[in-house]
Hints:
single chain
Amino acid sequence: MNMSPKAILISIAAGLTSALCVMASYGVGAGASPLMLIAAFPIYIAALSQGTTVGVASSILAIMITAIMVNPQTAIVLGVAFTIPASLIAHQANLAQETDGAMEWYPLSRLFFNLCFVLSLGLIILGAISGYTTEDLTPLLSDAMGKALEANPPAQPLTEEQTKTLTMTVFAILPFFFAGIWLIVHIVNLQLAAIVCRASNMMPRPKDDIAVDAGLPKIAVAIMLIALILSFMFSGIAKFFMLIIAGIFLMAFSLLGLANLHKRARGNPAGIALVIAAYGAIFFLYPVIYLFSISGILRTFNQSTNQTNTPPNSG
């Protein structure tokens, strides 16, 4: 499919910007690390506003530039963790079909599930390539833990054995928390890109009512529970894989719980105060967000029941 000159320019700009975000975080140092978190943002904008071809082209260009200017390993990270998921989900977001004279867009719930799936797969691929093992990463984590304890010394100094135990505990739960955070990173990038594209009148998909329409299929509950159970049964890299899946889907249900909160806050005089209090609690104590997963799971079963009990449209 031929691209217009405008589409070509947008593709080049998006690919170059995405690559520069990663290159800056590697070349400049820790101060530029946050730039890596927005590496998917230009790809989302290109694909949402100009279509799949431009999104894929910008993704490929970003990967190629990074491979040449940094190294192939970093290019793989950029691809599987940032640009490929962004171009795929943005492509699906633009899918629509005409039904009874009205445009029916790709369901938000399926987009959400697909994002969880593709991010799980991408992080698993990264883990398989990098070899997420105790032997490889424990020395690095031990050094980071030592520096953290020096910067924030505990009330009672930890013994060498206690420090080792703490390090191994962090090592064990790191994939779980990182996966959940990575889902948030992509959702924030996607939302910001959608806002920019709609403000520029370049996004064909109408605005979704996330608080109402967001959801997950019931199979997501089974996936999360199986992954959690297997994470206790497995060890090594297999445990890492299960923690990735469990972390992403549990975070997904937590976000659905927050969507429930926003929905119920509408028209409630105390609604805004409840939302502010919830986000404040999460800001000061991040694990609080997982408490909302219960609401998200209940929402999933309620939505499925409502859909099942709704008669098909015969008109």
